[in-house]
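Exam revision sheet. Question 4 asks you to relate a sequence to its structure. Input first:
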Amino acid sequence: MIKRIPLFAFLLLSVCTYAQKKDKFAKKMAATITAADMKKHLYTIASAEMEGRDTPSPGLEKAAEYIEAHFKSLGLLPGNKDSYRQYYPLYKDSMTGAGMVINGQNFELDKDFQPQTSNYPAEMRFSEVVFAGYGISDGDNRDDYKDLNVAGKLVMIIDGTPTGYKPSQSGFRSPASSFGKMNAAMKNGAAAILFVYNNFPRRAFNSNSNWSMNSYRSTQMPLAFTISPNIAAKIMNEDSKVLADKMKEGSLEPKAYDAEVDLSYSKTTQVTKVSNVLGLLEGTDLKDEYVVLTAHYDHVGKRSNGDIYYGADDDGSGTTGILELAEAFAEAKKAGKGPRRSILFMTVSGEEKGLWGSHYYSEHPVYPLEKTTVDLNIDMIGRIGTEYLKSKDSTNYTYIIGDDKLSSDLATITDQVNSTYTKLKLDRKYNDPNDPNRFYFRSDHYNFAQKGVPIIFYFNGTHADYHRPTDTPDKINYPLMAKRAQLVFYTAMEMANRNDMLKRDIKLEVPRGF
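Answer key, structure tokens:
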């Protein structure tokens, strides 16, 4: 009689047997990912010539050209129809004029008022100003707009918070932040806002906005200006003399003031485009399903004083990993053992500005996201993080982030692949939803996760050179970097060759504040 084997043990045995059958060939292909090749690529990507690869910049374009040339040399197909690029537009506004007139009196830019650079071109005239206190709307905690009609009106609010008030959220999303107050005014229908600040006159502000993807918005924020107490006094008359004291006491009530107010703002908009770089290795019998491998090739650029932020680890290391992974899989295909699923090798831009490139791809996918089994994202794999500097595992670890989310298949496969091949220490501390770093939400994989695609994020942790000009290629641990990239290779091979796509059986949980 054949001894009965429990189902889970049989499945585990099947997986391990499959891995052992592939072991010799897989190791041969993984061995093409070498420290020497990685060093060669990274010294180019993180060179002074690339000037920190800001988005947008000539250095970023040079890096894109280098990546595209490498993909072509391997025989990868263009990843976006007939192109290796997926372009997306960026917009930059420059103010050309701003004005404010109260009851016939002209006020001076910078001395008395300043506009928000996010304003749209407009000229508005109002016959009254509605004072809404601190302008805080925080659920049952506090609502300065209660019983106050500001729809289509000009609202004036003061900076700061009342005594004893504790906002329900902190930081940027606090109802007491400038963004929180703007959002509250918008939700109540305000047409324009005057923020009263004490620190006037001010030095001339930068009339140019930063580059942004968001020139077209589904909702426009109210026109907004910061103003001096002097302007507030022209509107509030006698009430302005006791404004600060009464607001602290909470005894100054919301009120509408008669005033003739002229507001104007004009600007021009510069438009450019940047790209993600995509190369495709077509699969065999499952070629209409996809494994996506990502890293961001941008960094934070060059400063006006000449300092270059080289971004060797962040994320020149991940970009180099993609180049080497592409070569390993291309070699496997040449040997007649290419992957069953197609593999998309993609380096994205704009990560440092807000995950721009991966966001654009997730909203405009070249290949169906429902047919994308996984995104394996590499962001910083070339260094030893601060927490491991004194560890016995300092040269044999990687952080694995996100393999406990979205798919119950991921962690088991990751552990099996690692135990068969690389035997790295897999540190999952950042999977903890209460971890204050929230790394799961801070790199390009997250835009895939939001669309339901299972992800793994490979990461070495931060270090003293993180986002500094000293993040240079001479400080990279190339053997460790190659080993981490080999783990990604083995994992991608398993994902590309298994019979089924990964299950999507775990709901994405997003902490409050995201």
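Marking note for examiners. The chain has two domains: 33-91+284-497, 92-270.
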